[in-house]
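ok so dumb question maybe but i'm new to this and my supervisor (M.) told me to 'just get the structure for V-type ATP synthase beta chain' and walked off. so i did the thing. is this what she meant?? sequence i used:
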Amino acid sequence: MSIEYLGLTSINGPLVILEGVMNASFEEIVEMKVDGTETKLGRIIQLDEDRAVIQVFENTANMSLSNTRTKLTGHPMEITLSEEILGRTFNGLGQPIDGLGEIVSDIRRDVNGKPMNPVRREYPRNYIRTGISAIDGLTTLIRGQKLPIFSGNGLPHDQLAAQIVKQASLSSGDDQRDSSPDSAGSADSADSQISGEYSDRRDNEQFAVVFAAMGVKHDVAEFFRRTFEESGAASHVVTYLNLANDPVAERIITPKVALTAAEYLAFDKGYHVLVILTDMTSYAEALREISSSKGEIPSRKGYPGYLYSELATIYERAGIIAGCKGSVTQIPILTMPGDDITHPIPDLTGYITEGQIVLDRSLHQQGIYPPINVLPSLSRLMKDGIGEGFTREDHQDVANQLFSAYAKVGEARALASVIGEDELSPVDKQYLSFGKAFENEFIGQDIFENRSIIQTLDIGWKLLRMLPKDELDRIDTKLLDKYYDDTRVK
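this is what came out, is it supposed to look like this??
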C-alpha cells in the first residue's frame, strides 16, 4: 500500500522540501499531483531523517504548499529500452518527442547505471574513423576512449558534432591496405567506400551513435535533427534533446539517460556506440544552480565541490567490458567560459579523460574549418589503436613529424614578427610555407568532406615534402625512403 503525502513544507526554485517522509531512498523517483490534475515527476536528492529534498524535473509552476500530493514510487529514475530506440528522438528524460509513440519493451534500466568492474575492463583498441584529418591523423579516437572537445562560445562545435555523427564509422579493412607505390594512387577508390552510409562494417560489427544535447536553443536542435535526416544517418542515431527553455533539473539527468541507452546497445546488443554529449558546460551550470538552491557552500567559480565526482560519474561510463561484443566511446563537448582552459569545467574534465581536442578562435577567424589547434590537442590512447594492423604503418611517425614541424612553424612566425620575414633563413621560410599549407589543407576541410585515413596520411606526406628531407627527424629511415620520394602519394 503506497502512502500519499499531502502538501509541501517549502518550494525553492526547482527544489521542494517534504517533511514526515518514511522509508524514502536517495535518488528515488516521486510522483507529484498538482490540483488533482497535473502530474509532475521529481527525484529525492537529499535525505535528513524524515526530511526529503526533491528535485522537480518539470518546473514548479502552479505548485503551492497546499495543492500538491506526493507519492513515492519505490524505484530510481528508469527508462524503457529496446533496439527500437535507434532512429528516435527523446527529451532529456527519455520520453519520445518525435510523435512515433512510446517504446514498448519489458526492459527498464536505472539511469544511474552501475560502475564497471575494473578487473573486467579491456584496454581500448581499434580506432573510430571520423573522416576529419585533424582528428583521425593527429588525435585519433580509439574505441572505448573518452576524448572531449574543448570549444568556446561562437566556435563551430555544433557543426563539428553534427559532422562527426554523420561520418563516424568503425575502422575497416579498407584502411589497412597495401601502401606500396603501386597502390598509393587508389585512395580515391577506397574513400568511395568510406563511412556515413554504415555499409562497410567489418565482421558484421554494428555501429550506432547516441547524441545528447543539453541546454540547446530551438534553432540548434532543429539544425541537428535536419542534418541527421538529410545525411541518412538518422536511422543509426538515438537523439536526446534538452532545450534551453526546458527545466534545469532535466538537464542534469539527460547525459545519464543517454549513457544508459548507450550501455544497453553496447553491452546487451553488441553495438559499438559513440556517445556525443554537448554541452557539458550547460550540465555543470545546472549543477551549480541546483547546488545554490540547496544552500551548499560553493567551491571554485561557484561550482559545487562535488563537480569532479559528478563529471567522473558520467565520463567513466565509457569503455569495453571483457566478454561483451560492444563498446561505449565518448566525445563530450564543452564550451570554455572566456576561452579559459584553466576554468574548472575543462580543468576537471582533463583530469578524467584521455586527452582533448581544442578548438582555436584565431584559426576560426581565418576561415579554417574545423579550427582545431593541434598543438594542445592530444589523444593518450592513440598509440595503441593505429599503425600496422589498424591504420597504416607510417601513421605514428607521420603524426609525430607533423606535430614537430608545426611547433617549429610557431617559432618561425615568432621570429618573423621580430626581424621580418625577409631576414629569415631559407629553412625558416620553408616552415612558414608549410604552416600555411598545413592549416589550409590538412586541418582545414569542407564540412561535407569525408576523408579516409589513407587520404589523411597521404596529405601529410605531401605537406612534409615541402621541407628538406634532413629536417624530418621523427620518421623511421625505412619509412622515409619508402614514402618521401614517392610522388604518386598525393
